[in-house]
Amino acid sequence: MGGVSLITVEALFLVVTAWLAVFAQSWFGGFRALTGAQLDVLPSLMVYAGLTGGLWSVGLLSFFAGMLLDSLSLNPLGVSVFPLFVVGWAVNANQELILRTERYAQCLLGIGAGALVPLLTLSVIVFLMGERVERPVVGWESLWRWLVMAVAGGVATPMIFLFGDLSRRMFLYEVAPENRFRGDREIKRWRV
Amino acid sequence: MSNRPNYVVLCVVAVLVLLLLGLPASDSSRLKLALGGLFVPLFGLAGSAQSFGTQASALLPTRRELAEDLQKSRLENEQLRFKLQQMEDIWRENQMLRQAAGWTKRVPRNMRIARVIGRDPANWWSSLQIDLGSRDGVTVDMPVMTAEGLVGKVHQVSYSRSMVVAVGDPNCRVPAMVVDTRDTGVVVPAASGTLDRQIVDLSFLPGNSQLKPGQRIVTSGLGEIFPKDIPIGRVADVRTVGYGMYAESRVRLEVNINRVEQVWVVFP
């Protein structure tokens, strides 16, 4: 039960962080006014979830985060879910090959995720939604926004790892490894 | 077999996404509004924090600065009252002339001020969240403007807030008119793509239109959504398309959507 509650708390923590992140993206327009592109923290959060939690956490986070993002946007509901999940899934599948604690690895993964998510989302809107929705205008300016999002992802990911690991230490306990020593084979010593 | 749970989760997510994307527009919109309701406490908290910040900053200026501000405001108020008196005379005269000419009377716009509480988190759309909703009588397609010009139209309405789709977004096409030449066209997103979100295109203009940079563009009143004569922007440049069959113009919008903090919703 302890493990289950740990997973629940972890997933809840990720969903609440995504909720706050989506609100911050909508409310704070300073970054957009400065660079012409809005910072997207969710790809970085998916990298963190992919390397920290299990696949169900990744699925849950991508579903809720994508839905929350679309609810405040003109995006058709659900288009952001799959791109976020793909990132989390790919990272989670290669969890053992990635140096989780290295800052450069976090940064590179953030750049990759920040670049991949907008591309996949636009592809879903254009190819899957077809004529049912208006197509977003894509031009040379989109390239600039894409670059900004990728770089911002690279900067945001190590910060999310810092913040996430700190929060984990504050609110969650580490599962202690099981004792492999058998009690019945204990060597009893005493003086004759 | 060790990858089986991975594919199960992948399939679950894919099925959920396909179900969501296949929802009818009305159900999808209702679900969006319900989910958007989760942000109400955060928007409320941010609004309170902002007004607290404004009140706190109001305590900082010295008496001398406040006195100077008051003097300046009094002077401005005096000028505006004088202008208003002139405008009222002109309005009366205009109504009399319209009556004499047998034209319908113009009704002053009924407007309510709203605060911008959020912007589209996605980079490829241009929309705003405002703090007026169905409880305030806001309905879909109501025009939204500032003192400078047109902002857009209401796209989605929930109980306490609404989503406004801005001019320059593919979901908001505005019938427009060039004030000097009376040529009509439609304001659409800039086809060439520009980093400046204040640049849009004015399409479907007649090929022989004599446009010049700097000319004013206003709403034409066609299409029954936007009332006539709301300023939109100014002509930046002109080009002919379709072997001279028609012309297109790039227009610089009067309102910078990224910086707008308060808007007026135009009620019928």
Describe what you observe in this structure.
The complex is a heterodimer of chains A (192) and B (268). Chain A is mainly alpha-helical. Chain A has a single domain, classed as Arp2/3 complex 21 kDa subunit ARPC3 (Orthogonal Bundle), CATH 1.10.1760. Chain A has helices at 2-27, 30-35, 42-52, 55-71, 81-93, 103-128, 140-171. In chain A, helix 3 crosses helix 7 (140-171), helix 4 packs antiparallel against helix 5 (81-93) and helix 5 packs antiparallel against helix 6 (103-128). The longest helix of chain A is centred in the last third of the chain and has 32 residues, at 140-171. Chain A is elongated, with a radius of gyration of 21 Å. In chain B, a hairpin with a 4-residue loop joins strand 4 (150-157) and strand 5 (162-166). The model of chain B has no long low-confidence stretch (mean pLDDT 88). Chain B has 4 domains: 4-57, no CATH class; 71-108, no CATH class; 110-169 and 262-267, Thrombin, subunit H (Beta Barrel), CATH 2.40.10; 174-253, Beta Barrel (Thrombin, subunit H). With 268 residues, chain B is an alpha+beta fold. Chain B is globular. Chain B has a 6-stranded antiparallel barrel. The chains are: A mainly alpha (192), B alpha+beta (268).
- Give the beta-strand count of chain A: 0
Biggest contact = A-B, 59 and 52 residues
Helix amount of chain A, in percent?
Answer: 55-70%
Radius of gyration of chain B: 23 Å
**How much is the average pLDDT of chain B?**
88
CATH fold topology of chain A: Arp2/3 complex 21 kDa subunit ARPC3
Unreliable stretches covering 5 or more consecutive residues of chain B: none
Helix content range of chain B: 25-40%
CATH topology of the largest domain in chain B: Thrombin, subunit H
What can be said about the biggest beta sheet of chain B? Answer: 6 strands, antiparallel, barrel
